[in-house]
Amino acid sequence: MSPITRRAAVLGCVAVTVALSGCAAVTPSKSGANGDVVLRVQGMPPATDKPGLALFKKQVSDFEKANPGIKVQGSTTVFDPLTFSAKLAGGSVEDVIKVPLTEPQRLIQQKQVQPITGQLKAWDHFKEFNPQVLKPLSDSAGDVYGVPQNPYAQGLVYNRELFEKAGLDPDKPPTTWDEVRAAAKAISEKTGKAGFVQESKENQGGWQLTMLSYAFGGDLQTQQGGKYTATFTGEATQKALGLLKDMRWKDDSLGKNLLNNQNDVIKNFAAGQVGMFMGSPGTYRLAKMQFSMENTDAFGVAPLPQAGGNATLTGGDIYMVPKSADTQRAAAAVKWLTFAYAQPQYSTDAAAQQAKALSADPKSAVGVPTLPVFDAARQAQINAAIKPYVNVKLDHFKPYIDGLSKLDLKPEPPYQAQQLYTALDTVVQAVLTKRDADIPSLLAAAEKDVNAKLAAAQK
Fold first, then answer.
1. Which own/partner contact pairs does 81-84 have at CB distance under 8 Å and 24+ positions apart?
2. Inside any domain, residue 66
């Protein structure tokens, strides 16, 4: 993928959900008592996210005033890779669904979601969307099937305070994985904390191995003749795992807790127990709000270090309309997507209003960088509009903002990525827990298993 040369947007995240918890079944849509269309939408923040939930409720109120006859019912349902497909196939999902960037291509190919190009084109600013952002949400004919929210690119999150205690310069974070290894060892030896932590369970080990492979110049999936194939055994992926193995068994710099999901890592990072991990700037908000990080000044983030590649993984939340939504609700759904997600990322007035509302809560985080959904000129205007309400130390995000434009942005594997991640979880876990783990054999077995499943799915 060609590099995106735009600078990262300096816009506060409205709501970021990380935990992959279970999805409750929903009943079919019904019309309201007055004949209103009742639109059920995923993406409502949980009660623990007070500023995000307050903003969501205001959006619903404003939307209903602007669209008489439509009533919005918010849902806190979050994506669960173990149950999502069955619920979607059975039609027991909301009228607007929220999925990670791993899912759109599979859902499009399996015709489980609806194209929304026609309705989106009615919006005045449709042509100003960043084409790189829409590409993973489109089919081969160019039809668009979703709207993104808070797209991100992975980087290296680090604790500036632990860097200082280890004799490292927090304003000059590692740019290569050799430097990461050296810094992790120094942090571990001089502070007693985990120098670097690798996620390893609930599909997040495979997800993080993917971004690490990108940094080493590799790919985990290829496409030929319209068919997707897993490619786990490449040299880049073997080197990436070799690095983790050395850091675990030679340096002892990965800490004592080796089986972690993302929430585990962020919780320990917020408590000052982790020196570095792979994450996005949005981690700041989670550490502060969800895990009560007191010393937020210790938060730092840099572009993903490289080791032979020149890429970082990009992702984000995608809102789509399932096939189960009838014509009336599908039209209402696109109105909601434009109003709630596209417009706030384009309109300076909407962005400023959201930033002002969020900044009123001391636990909020306004100004955390995301990737631009529209062009650089528009993003500069957004940045200026929210500047009075920014309440994070932008200097601590500067390495990330300055360095991101130098990297290629690569999406997650486009077809059934969760299948890949499940298989790679076991590989990562073996490398972290078994000194004699045979990396080539582990990758070969995982590749064979996944390719059998992909072949069956693509018949």
1. 81/20, 81/203, 81/418, 81/422, 83/22, 83/23, 84/23
2. yes
